[in-house]
Write a structure and sequence with these properties.
With 205 residues, the chain is α/β, with parallel strands linked by helices. The protein is built from eight helices and six strands, in the order βαββαβββαααααα.
Length: 205
């Protein structure tokens, strides 16, 4: 199985190639969207979520190479957390994860073990809070828009952290970028815009 690595950090690319080269079943290739070609082999895409252009690259390969992708493994540059299944093919793993955990993850991916590919399920209110928070709205604004009180909005944010098993808001924002992509912009064009000086990383404090 081919493994394609996308990272603009040479240390990350070299480190991943060193780790993965010991696995006989994998053929490791660094790649960017200009050199990637369609193929018949199933492929694991490993994407550095901290690289500039990550969102564009991820969306591009999902659009053009979804069928040949066994999975998209996104490396999260945040505190250690268990692997998070975002959708039926996308897994988020912490850059701080132990190497053994990474090997185990690749075994699951190679076998496409359904125990790993079970996306986190959100309630309607959690989903709505997540979307609006990602778009930069404060807890007060979200409460007004979706008809909850501020405490319920803050509780939804805490449940999001627990459900995804991550420890920080930057990880949640990365997950939101993966889930919502451009739909956030399209859906909220008709809503009142958040204040220009709102910092998304602090909007639910």
């Amino acid at each position: 199985m081919d493994v394609r690595i996308f990272s603009k950090c040479n240390f990350t690319t070299v480190g991943l190639r060193e780790i993965l080269s010991s696995i006989p079943m994998l053929s490791i290739k660094p790649v960017n969207r200009f050199t990637l070609q369609q193929g018949k082999k199933k492929c694991i895409f490993i994407i550095d979520g901290s690289s500039e252009g990550f969102e564009e690259y991820y969306e591009s390969i999902r659009t053009h190479f979804y069928n040949m992708a066994s999975s998209f493994v996104i490396i999260n540059n945040s505190p250690n957390h268990p692997p998070v299944c975002i959708d039926e093919k996308t897994i988020l793993i912490s850059k701080s994860a132990a190497i053994d955990s990474f090997y185990k993850l690749l075994d699951f991916v190679h076998l496409h073990d359904r125990r790993l590919f079970s996306p986190v399920r959100l309630s309607k209110s959690e989903y709505a809070v997540f979307q609006h928070w990602c778009a930069g709205y404060t807890a007060e604004a979200i409460a007004d828009i979706i008809g909850l009180n501020k405490k319920s909005v803050l509780n939804s944010k805490s449940r999001l952290l627990n459900k995804y098993g991550v420890q920080d808001k930057n990880s949640l924002l990365l997950i939101a970028k993966i889930i919502f992509k451009d739909s956030v912009i399209e859906e909220f064009d008709s809503l009142p815009k958040p204040a220009a000086d709102i910092n998304m990383s602090n909007s639910l404090i």
